[in-house]
Amino acid sequence: MTKKTQILDETKIKRMLMRISHEILEKHRSTDSLVFVGIQTRGVNLARRIAANIKGIAEVEIPVGVLDITFYRDDISGMGKQPVVKSTDIPFDINDKDMVIIDDVLFTGRTIRAAMDAIMDYGRPRRIMLAVLIDRGHRELPIRADIVGKNLPTMRKETVRLHLKEIDDVEEVVLYKSEE
Q1: Average pLDDT, the chain
Q2: The whole model's pTM is what?
Q3: 84 burial class (0-12, 13-18, 19+ CB within 10 angstroms)?
Q4: What structural domains does the chain harbor?
Q5: Per residue in 135-177, pLDDT tens?
Q6: Residue from 121, 145, 125, 120 nearest 46 by CA
Q7: Farthest CA pair distance, the chain
Q8: CA 144, CA 109: separation in Å to the nearest integer?
Q9: d(Cα 1, Cα 170) in Å, to the nearest integer?
C-alpha cells in the first residue's frame, strides 16, 4: 500500500515558478544570450511557464527548447525492451549561449548528466545553469541545482511526482511513501 501526501498545490507551484523566474533574471544581467531547455516531459512545461513569466516581467522572449535524454541515460538497459522516446527540438543555436536546463525533480543527478551529454551534441553553450522545482537530495553524482523552488528531504525509497494540468489534469507535487 502507498501513502500519498500533497507537498505543493497549484498556488504554491505558481508562486515558486514566479520566484524561479525572478532568480533567473537576477543571475543574468542581460537576456540577449539566454535560452531555456526543458527536459521531457514536465521540465518542458515548466520551462515554457518560466519563459512566459519572464515575458510578463521583463517583456523579453526567451527561446525554449525541448530535450529528450532517453538514449543518453546510463540506465537505459533497465528501461525495458522499448523505452519511450520523445522528441528533441532545439530550434536555435546554443553555441555561446547562457543556457538554463529546467527539470521538475532533482534526485540522483543522472538525468542532468544525461541532459548535459545530449546538449553537447548540439553545440557548446557559454554557461549551463540548472533550475529545478524540487530538489529531493540523494545525489549519486556531483551535480547541484543553481536555482531550486523547494528543497524536500526524502528517504531514498520515497517517490516525488509533479503533476501538471497539461499532462495529468491536476496541479500538485506529491510525495509517495510505501507502507510495508
Answers
A1: 94
A2: 0.94
A3: exposed
A4: 11-72+87-157 (3.40.50.2020)
A5: 999 999 999 999 999 999 999 999 999 999 999 999 999 999 9
A6: 145
A7: 52
A8: 8
A9: 22
